Amino acid sequence: MLTFAMRSIIFYKTPSGQCPVKEFLTNLTDKERQKVTWVLTPAQEIALAEQRKKDYEKRQEH
Hints:
Number of strands: 2
Number of helices: 2
Structural class: mainly alpha
């Protein structure tokens, strides 16, 4: 599992208990890992913005 701020990415596990994504990420070079992080960061920011919007809307209802 990767954790970004308040979000987590849960990796798929096969029925035999293997975690292909974790194995893939573990075998990346530092440069490749940086690129993966670079790609995931905007996804994290979008998710956080959506959560802030939901929180704001809930406060406006009360």
